[in-house]
Design brief:
CATH architecture of the largest domain: 4-Layer Sandwich
Distance between the termini: 15 Å
Largest sheet: 6 strands, mixed
Helix content: 25-40%
CATH topology of the largest domain: Purple Acid Phosphatase, chain A, domain 2
Structural class: alpha/beta
Strand order of the largest sheet: 4-5-6-7-9-8
Length: 340
C-alpha cells in the first residue's frame, strides 16, 4: 500500500512537471509573438500631435458649447480601459492624455501602448503631453517622442478657444524651449479667444494639497501664465485631483487615470475630467471609476515589455535552457515509465 501511494505521488509530480514545462514554453511562444506584433503596430490615425490629427477636430460654432476630456497618468492594468468607456460616453471633441501613459520610457513600452490604443475605442482626436515616465534621456528621448507622437510644443484653436500644449518635465530635461514657445504666443491677439488653456505634465507647485515637486522654472512659468492671461493650466503628475486658483489662473491637476494614487495628502480616486466650454462658462465634470485589475492586460504587458524582449535579445540562451528542461523532463519520464 505504501509503495502504491509513493508511486501515485511520483506520477502526479511527474505530470505536474510536464504541465509546468508546457506552460512555460507556451508563455514564451506567446511573449515572442506578442512582442513582435506590438513592435510592428502603429498608432491609430486619430492619436498624436500631428497636423493631420488636428485636422480631424470637428467643425465648431464659435458660440456653441463643446466638451473635451483630460486624463493624466493613465498607466494601469485594467483601470484606464474601464475609464475609457466613460470618456467615450462624454462624447468629447477631443481627449488630452497628460503624460505617463507607460511605466518606463523605452521602445517596447511604447510598442505595448500602441497595440493597446485601439481597445480604448476613441474615435475623436487624442493629443499628448510627454510625462516623466514616457521619456528617458538615453532609452527614449524627446526626439523619439516627436517622431512617434508629433511635436511636443504646439497649439490649435477650436471653438474660439486657444489650446496650447507644452513639454514640462523634471530636471533630466530642459524646459527652456517650451517656455520660449509659450512666450511666442504673446505675439498673437490672445484677447480674441473666449478661453485660453495650457496642458502639461508636471505643474508648477501651487498648492499644499498636492505632492510637493518643484522645478527650477516654476516661478517663471506661473508669470508666463499670468502675462498671457491663461484661464486654465491643466496638468497631471500628482496621482489624484486638485483645483487651485492663483492670481487669475485656474490650476487643474488631474492624475487619477489609473496609476497608484498619491494619498499622503488625503483620500484620492481614479478619474478623468470632462470640461464643457460655453459662451460665458466652463463646466467641469469628474468621471470617477473604480480601480480594476485585468489579468489579460497584465500578461500581455509583461510579455511585451519584459519576457519577449529578453527572449528576442538572447535566443540561443533560451533555446539551450528549454532544451535542457526538455531533456530533464524526458529523462524523468523514461525513468518513471521504465520503473513502473
Amino acid at each position: 500500500m505504501k509503495h502504491f501511494l509513493w508511486a501515485a505521488l511520483g506520477r502526479r509530480l511527474l505530470w505536474s512537471m510536464v504541465g509546468l514545462y508546457a506552460l512555460a514554453l507556451g508563455v514564451q511562444v506567446y511573449a515572442v509573438v506578442a512582442t513582435s506584433a506590438a513592435r510592428s503596430s502603429v498608432l491609430p490615425e486619430n492619436f498624436g500631435n500631428f497636423e493631420h490629427v488636428r485636422t480631424m477636430l470637428p467643425a465648431s460654432d464659435p458660440g456653441a458649447p463643446f466638451t473635451f476630456v483630460v486624463v493624466g497618468d493613465p498607466r494601469s492594468k485594467g483601470t484606464f480601459e474601464a475609464l475609457a468607456e466613460d470618456i467615450n460616453a462624454a462624447k468629447p471633441d477631443f481627449v488630452v492624455i497628460l503624460g505617463d501613459w507607460v511605466d518606463a520610457g523605452s521602445t517596447d513600452w511604447h510598442a505595448y501602448y500602441r497595440q493597446e490604443c485601439p481597445e480604448y475605442g476613441f474615435t475623436c482626436p487624442v493629443f499628448f503631453t510627454p510625462g516623466n515616465h514616457d521619456v528617458d534621456p538615453k532609452k527614449y528621448d524627446l526626439d523619439a517622442f516627436a517622431r512617434d507622437y508629433g511635436p511636443r510644443n504646439f497649439s490649435f484653436v477650436h471653438g474660439d478657444c486657444l489650446f496650447a500644449f507644452i513639454s514640462h518635465l523634471d530636471r533630466r530635461f530642459s524646459n527652456r524651449e517650451s517656455l520660449d514657445y509659450l512666450r511666442s504666443l504673446a505675439g498673437q491677439d490672445l484677447g480674441k479667444y473666449r478661453r485660453r488653456f495650457v496642458f502639461m505634465h508636471i505643474p508648477p507647485w501651487v498648492s499644499p494639497d498636492i505632492k510637493e515637486r518643484h522645478t527650477t522654472d516654476e516661478a517663471e512659468l506661473t508669470r508666463i501664465f499670468e502675462d498671457l492671461h491663461i484661464d486654465y493650466a491643466v496638468a497631471a503628475d500628482f496621482h489624484g485631483y486638485n483645483q487651485t486658483w492663483l492670481r487669475g489662473v485656474e490650476y487643474l491637476v488631474t492624475g487619477g487615470g489609473g496609476a497608484h494614487l498619491h494619498e499622503s495628502m488625503g483620500k484620492q480616486f481614479h478619474h478623468a475630467v470632462a470640461l464643457t466650454v460655453g459662451s460665458d462658462m466652463v463646466s467641469e465634470r469628474i468621471l470617477p471609476v473604480a480601480a480594476r485589475f485585468d489579468f489579460g492586460d497584465w500578461l500581455e504587458l509583461n510579455s511585451v515589455v519584459r519576457i519577449g524582449p529578453m527572449m528576442l535579445a538572447h535566443p540561443v540562451l533560451f533555446a539551450v535552457g528549454n532544451a535542457i528542461m526538455a531533456l530533464a523532463v524526458a529523462g524523468l519520464f523514461r525513468k518513471r515509465t521504465g520503473g513502473s
